[in-house]
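Researcher: Next sequence.
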Amino acid sequence: MDTLIRPTLTLWQREIVRFYRQRSRIVGALATPVLFWMLLGSGFAESFRPAGSEGVGYAEYFYPGTIVLVVLFTAIFSTISVIEDRREGFLQAVLVAPVARSTIVLGKILGGTTLALGQALLLLAAAPLLGLRLGVFDLVLAVAVLFVVAFALTTLGFLIAWRMDSTQGFHAIMNLVLIPMWLLSGAFFPAAGASPWLRALMMLNPLTYGVAALRRCLYAGTATVGADVPALALSLLVTCAFAALTFLAARALASRPLDVGLA
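Model: Next structure:
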């Protein structure tokens, strides 16, 4: 058991220490989404009228999406460390250690997940400023949803970073995959006003259900959550399945023989 827990905790701790020694990452991951929230919330305040969410301003509608965007940005930044570790030779040294590859994967992913969750909670603490009063159960459920979403996005970033050797190429792929994934999650605009083909894409997007689960937690017991938002039970099921499948894929990928320079 010690050979499983200790390597995982060591890599998790390294990710945390590394992050807090790079203050610019903290500012970039947290300030950028908050700036988007403030600017877009103010810009669309008078023109946003979603069906089923009458009385909800755009700043309030965009709030759950902004929290998920914080998670997304932190996941992107944290998984870049996979490429940097390979370039510096650290990853090769870890991979030849007598520990299971799954512990290496879990330690890296849990490190990024913890960072993403911590920053998301800072923004979640601003909920009372928007008039949102969360009960204890809803708050605990919202934190759990954010943890699963952070785990899934960090694992997805890990999957992309594992075989890449260029941070520039990694940024390009992440922008191509994750930003559209977030835009089509219902975080930026509701599915009710979208065209049928776009709405179908949104329903196929697993992140749609993570945003929906968070929105259901924040607006529990109210009718302002929106008529087109998936039910909480379905959202939780899809989000957990997404996290589990991405982790299984990451573990399988890390278990394969490595390219020259990695073995």
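Model: The radius of gyration is 19 Å. The chain has a mean pLDDT of 82.
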